[in-house]
Amino acid sequence: MKKLITLSTLLVVSSFAVAQGGFEDPNDARTYKANEQERAEMKREKLRKHGKQDGKYGDKKGIGFFDENNAVKSVKDLPAAKDKSFVLLEGNITKRVGKKDFIFKDATGEVEIEVSRRAWQGQTITPTDRIQIRGVLDKEWDKTEVEVMEIIKK
User: Fold this and answer.
1) Angle, alpha carbons 16-32-22 (nearest 5°)
2) What is the per-residue pLDDT for 114?
3) Is 2.40.50.200 the CATH number for 68-153?
């Protein structure tokens, strides 16, 4: 009797697995190809989530869509801009004030910027180098800073 109950339970459980698509036949090109693409996309998403692309850090170029017409283009306009506004500034990094924090100066004033490792793109920047920064305005209670996503040497 125990054998019969065990066998019937096993059949019921295995039929649910097959009905839900729990088995992938590598010889069936239709399902295997679709699942292979899905697995590849999941792997890419996991790498993106952890700051990687193709298994390497810091090899992403650009920041996606960036509308230069709607970006804040001078330091003096930053206080009037909304939080999370796109920023496009040209000037110089004058000094370092923290691990990722720097002072950026353009013709209209100075602002603190936060530069991620990815934004440097392998470039070495000195205070005499003219650069363009692309980023997002971050307004907090006590300070306003720009989170830099890309640095372009001019």
Assistant:
1) 15
2) 96
3) yes
